[in-house]
Design brief:
About 75% of the residues lie in helices and about 0% in strands. By secondary structure, it is an all-alpha fold. α1 packs antiparallel against α2 and α2 packs across α3.
């Protein structure tokens, strides 16, 4: 889909994520994600995409911000108690080590990974749906959650594959991960389109 403008999408995704990361609490990340997916939407409609389109999606600023803040809040509800349960006891031990947690730690880690995966699936299509369907934040999150869980098998496989590739890319000074990122976002957009066909 992005083949003839691949390098442009490398720049769009890289700069979009960079700008989104500059401000804490996801204040800019949500809107920038919407703007990135806006570029994919235009490309899917056979329109020529230009770099300045990355900054033309401010119509989605509020909805993107709401999704990002809810996502962060949900992650905090999961991560903070886990940190307190696991890390604090480790820090007060004379010889801290994950092995000291034994079976409890392994079970807690497995449960945490399951919950973390569910959260990712729940929010996976929220930004594309805001852009593609013009949904508000809460309806987009609800629709994304239902679709993500209903198609969990294929989506988890896709996320694991891309996660592995990204980790390998990170080991090479992140350059391969950056070059691969437009394909990852494009795949999420196309998966969303497959589940929610264009009207």
């Amino acid at each position: 889909m992005v083949g003839d403008q691949y390098w442009l999408f490398v720049g769009i995704v890289f700069i979009g994520i960079l700008i989104g990361s500059l401000v804490p609490l996801g204040i800019l990340m949500g809107p920038m994600m919407c703007e990135i997916y806006l570029c994919y939407l235009r490309k899917s409609q056979n329109q020529q995409v230009t770099f300045d389109m990355l900054f033309k999606g401010m119509d989605y600023f509020v909805e993107g911000l709401i999704v990002a803040l809810i996502n962060i809040a949900v992650m905090a509800v999961v991560m903070v108690p886990t940190y307190l349960i696991v890390m604090v006891p480790l820090m007060v031990q004379e010889q801290p080590g994950l092995a000291s947690l034994g079976i409890f730690g392994s079970i807690l880690f497995a449960v945490l990974m399951l919950v973390y995966t569910i959260i990712i699936l729940w929010f996976l299509f929220a930004y594309p749906l805001i852009v593609d369907r013009g949904l508000q934040a809460i309806p987009a999150i609800k629709a994304s959650g239902r679709a993500g869980l209903a198609n969990a098998g294929g989506l988890v496989g896709m996320l694991l594959l891309y996660g592995l590739i990204s980790c390998l890319g990170a080991c090479c000074c992140y350059v391969p991960a950056i070059l691969f990122s437009p394909l990852f976002f494009g795949d999420i957009f196309l998966a969303c389109r497959e589940i929610f066909p264009a009207e």
